[in-house]
Amino acid sequence: MISWSSLEWQQLPRQVPVSSGLFEIVGTVFDWLVHLVNAYMLAMKLTTVEVILGIALVHVFINVLLYNPR
């Protein structure tokens, strides 16, 4: 089984305790919530044009990275 919550994708033993998986899920949800709160607070400081421009730039950079022929 692979732990998708970890950046290292560690191989986990077959018999993983339930509490270990639960902590992993709670930690991932906490991480998502922190990112959402930070994005919301940052968006409150920006104008609508700046938010749209930022989203567009992220979209362009992600496409450049993902579709780079090298």
Q: What brief labels describe this structure?
A:
single chain, 70 residues, mainly alpha, 2 helices, flat
Distance between the termini: 31 Å
**H-E string:** HH
Q: Please summarize the sheet with the most strands.
A: none
Q: How many DSSP H or I helices? A: 2
From the spread of the alpha carbons, the general shape counts as: flat
**Strand elements, count:** 0
Number of domains: 1
**Estimated structural class:** mainly alpha
Low-pLDDT segments:
none
Q: Tell me the strand percentage band.
A: under 5%
Percentage of residues assigned to helices: 55-70%
Overall radius of gyration: 18 Å
Mean pLDDT: 80
Quick summary:
Helices cover 67% and strands 0% of the residues.
Structure overview:
With 70 residues, the chain is mostly helical. The chain has one domain. The chain is 67% helix and 0% strand. It contains 2 helices and no strands. The chain has helices at 18-45, 48-66. The protein is flat, with a radius of gyration of 18 Å. The two termini are 31 Å apart. The relative contact order is 0.07. The mean pLDDT is 80.
Topology:
Layout: H1 18-45, H2 48-66
